[in-house]
Amino acid sequence: MDALHIGLLGCGVVGGGLLSLLQENGEVLTRRLGQPLQVRRVLVRNLRRQRNLPLPPGVLTTDFEEVLADPRISIVVELMGGTEVARKYALRALRAGKHLVTANKALLALHATELLAEAEARHCMVGFEASVGGGIPILEALATLLAANRIESLHGIINGTTNYILGRMAHDHLPYAAALAAAQGLGYAEPDPTLDVDGTDSAHKIAILARLAFGVDIDFKEISVQGITEVGPDDLRVAARFGYALKLLASATYAEEQLHLSVRPALVPQTAALARIEGPYNAVQIIGNFCGPQLFVGQGAGPRATASAVACDILAIGARLMELAEYPSRRWLGAGAVQQTLARAQAKVSVAPRGAQRGRYLLLVPSGDPPGSAGTAAAGRRFEAGVAEILSRHGIAAPHTEWVAAAAAGEWCYALETEPVVERQVWAGLDALATLESVKAAAKAYRIEPLAVSQTKGSPP
Ligand SMILES: NC(=O)c1ccc[n+]([C@@H]2O[C@H](COP(=O)([O-])OP(=O)(O)OC[C@H]3O[C@@H](n4cnc5c(N)ncnc54)[C@H](OP(=O)(O)O)[C@@H]3O)[C@@H](O)[C@H]2O)c1
């Protein structure tokens, strides 16, 4: 082989980052690979778009068939996003015997089984390190460097957009809409931020992480997903009063013979490492039964960090292709560890139904009755008694309570930290609290994640 030829599908944020990396680090890559990397074709939607990128003339195309038909292209790099066209092109590339690198978490969360079966049938390699955590080498770590462990839990802040928004709400007391606008102004949030703020993006990523960590073929619909759009600045303040930071946490936990999968705004102790992950940074904490707690932190998105992961996948596939070229009698060296681990995932453990997880919760009950001032103390006490009676009827014990003044003058929040309880009971308790006359708005509950080594019953898979 004179060079490793690649075809790029998409040349936006990540595609542009990859082209810059190939130019800036071209020498390093050639040295590591033993041959140069060459981009033969770049598929885009709009040929007229201005692109300040190091692109050789004539490589841009709007016709996928040109990428597919080029016999010198051995690796197709999918950086378009979306699921429908990306799935179609990825499958066609694999069927044509081309290896695949992708940063597309949605594609993998929804279609990994189909894509990897096709890849195996065609003896093709698939790299997707960039799909979770940008530049953080988390997938390779799970599939190889921690593979001797039974994973007990995995908690991640894996969406930088929402982490930035929650940070601005917590530190600058901004309402959600203003924090979102600030994120959009800085390019941390898309003009349409739905997939980030409603938790879908984190859910795509936890589907991939959990599949690798627990060997389970996850049905994306089994993940309980809640975004951050309902979080208010008062919630973050009350959480801080109780010693917690509020984060959009993607979690996969093995407890009582079941796998619990969720994405939700949750509370972590302010002393925990995850509480200190700020701005667009990502972090994943993994607890393995022998390695103990391990924390991976880094730039979870952006053109350079993501391009780093994409380029490393290209290098890994390129190195194996070189090996194959040296030993022509071998038709196939087998897939890399990450691809194999994901492909072999099977439904070995049951995924817990929504609401089945036990844990402690912080309940926020908005009230207009201030607690201690003269004349209203009695009303405050009646309110507390009413709340306690309802919670106790639902089997919820909440020994730690506090009144916290809301940002709006004259409004208060009665906050209660519960003992461990099954989530479903909390939901029922919240519904019942709505019947209390002096409750000003819907009560909220945030799960508290201790982020300590768990005492699971039974062995994780
Ligand atoms: N942005 C990040 O920081 C980041 C981080 C990790 C993973 N990812 C993932 O990486 C992928 C790409 O993200 P991105 O932010 O680079 O997206 P982007 O900036 O929107 O770029 C998408 C590129 O794909 C091209 N494209 C889209 N649909 C196409 C179609 N049907 N036919 C031909 N070309 C098409 C676009 O062409 P035009 O230029 O002509 O419009 C554009 O060049 C996504 O799967 C994303 O989830 C992104």
In a few lines, what is going on in this structure?
With 461 residues, the protein is of the alpha/beta class. The chain has helices spanning 13-24, 26-33, 64-69, 84-95, 105-121, 138-145, 160-172, 176-185, 194-197, 200-214, 233-241, 303-326, 337-344, 377-393, 423-433, and strands at residues 4-9, 37-43, 60-61, 73-78, 99-102, 126-127, 151-157, 224-225, 244-255, 258-269, 281-288, 292-299, 350-351, 358-367, 400-405, 412-417, 421-422, 444-448.
Relevant terms:
18 strands; Alpha-Beta Plaits; 23% strand; Dihydrodipicolinate Reductase, domain 2; 461 residues; binds NADP nicotinamide-adenine-dinucleotide phosphate; alpha/beta; six-stranded parallel β-sheet; Rossmann fold; elongated
- How many distinct domains? 3
The major pleated sheet works out as: 12 strands, mixed
Looking at the overall shape, the CATH architecture of the largest domain is 3-Layer(aba) Sandwich
Parts with pLDDT < 50 across at least 5 consecutive residues: 453-457
